[in-house]
Structure formats: structure tokens, C-alpha cells
Amino acid sequence: MHVPATHWTASRQGRRLMPLRGVVIGCAVLIATQLAAAPVNAAPASESAIAVLDFELYDLTLAPGLAAEQERTESIGPMLRQILGTQYGFQLVTIESETQKTADKGTGYLFEHHDVAAELGREAASDWVIVGRVHKASFLFVYFKALVIDTKTERPIADLVVEVKGTQKRLTEKGVESLAAQIAAAINEA
After folding, report:
1. CA 190, CA 174: separation in Å to the nearest integer?
2. Least confident piece of the model among 19-28, 44-53, 88-97, 131-140
3. Domain boundaries, the chain
């Protein structure tokens, strides 16, 4: 008699067959127990002050600088600030766009010069500064990249990346939510 492997699995002794459903249920219970013990949306240990710089677009496609992509890039910073403030309890520190533009010498400058980004954060009385970039290598997907920089040490504590497939507003929101969760986790672990 042939028993399909999708329904049954052999026990360790190989003498009797156990329903695969029991194995799946056991794994599900184990996973649920682990998830119940893990904190969800844990707030930062302290009310850290955080500055989120405006994101820049790094477009490597054959038609760079499309208006829709510029608009999406401009929406990420405010969205990230709002999520970090309301969901994770960070004190938001504002760095004016003009101040950022003055310090930024070109595309990728603040992303590569952590000391300059940290100085911007320090001058605004921030503990952390987030330098972000939308890295677009294809029309099919983009990467939301963020460096979490400690303003005291001038060093990044995390280099975070979220891949977003598609241009719909809801996908952008989900990507920013994921990035915010990673930022909060990185700061909590620091």
C-alpha cells in the first residue's frame, strides 16, 4: 500500500507512521509559544531624541528622476517621523531641509560621511540621526536604506534595508513601517 508523503511521515524508529498533521500542529504550537514571549512594537528603553533627515533618491534606472518617484521619496521622511514618534515613542527633533541641503555636498554625501550627519543631529540636540536613501536599480523594486547614526560616537549602529516591490502607496507605507520597526529595534539593542 502506498501512503503519500504529504499526509504521513515515518517516526524515528521507522516502525509506525505518524500523521504529518500532528507534526505541523506541534510546530505551530512551538512557534506560537515563541511569538507570545517576544515583545511586539516595544517602545525604546528611554525616550531618545531622534532626527530623521529627508530621504534622497539614488536612481540607477534608464529614466531617472521621474516625478512619481520623487514624490514617493519625499513622502518617506515625514511618514517615518510620524511612525517613530507615535508607535515607538521617540522624541522627534527637526532638522530643516535647508540645513540638510547646506551640509549635503552631493548625492550620497551624508550617507557616506557619518561625522557630518552626526554633527547635524548634535546641533539639533538629537541622540540619533537617521540618514535615508531610496535606491532604485529597477522599475520593479526599490530599496529603502537607512543608517542609524549615534550622534555622540559619529558611528552607525545599523545599516538597514527594506525591499519594496511596486509603486503603490500602501506598499510604500508597509516598507516604511518595516524600516521604523528595524530602527527602533536597533536603537533598543544599542
Report:
1. 25
2. 19-28
3. 8-37, 49-189
- b/e string for 56-84 if b means 16 or more Cβ within 10 A? bbbbeeeeeeeeebeebbeebbebbbebb
> d(Cα 53, Cα 109) in Å, to the nearest integer?
13
Question: Which residue in this structure is represented by grid cell 502506498?
Answer: 2
Q: What distance in Å separates the CA atoms of residue 108 and residue 171, rounded to the nearest whole number? A: 24
For residue range 115-125, list pLDDT tens digits in order. 999 999 999 99
- Domain 49-189 CATH superfamily: TolB, N-terminal domain (3.40.50.10070)
Strands of the chain, DSSP E: 8-10, 17-19, 49-52, 56-59, 91-93, 128-136, 141-150, 155-165
CA distance 24 to 19: 9
- Whole-prediction pTM: 0.74
**pLDDT tens digit string along 133-143?**
999 999 999 99
C-alpha 73: how far from its chain's center? Answer: 15
Task: Name the β-bridge partners of 146.
Answer: 132, 160
Helices 67-86 & 169-189, crossing angle to 10 degrees? Answer: 40
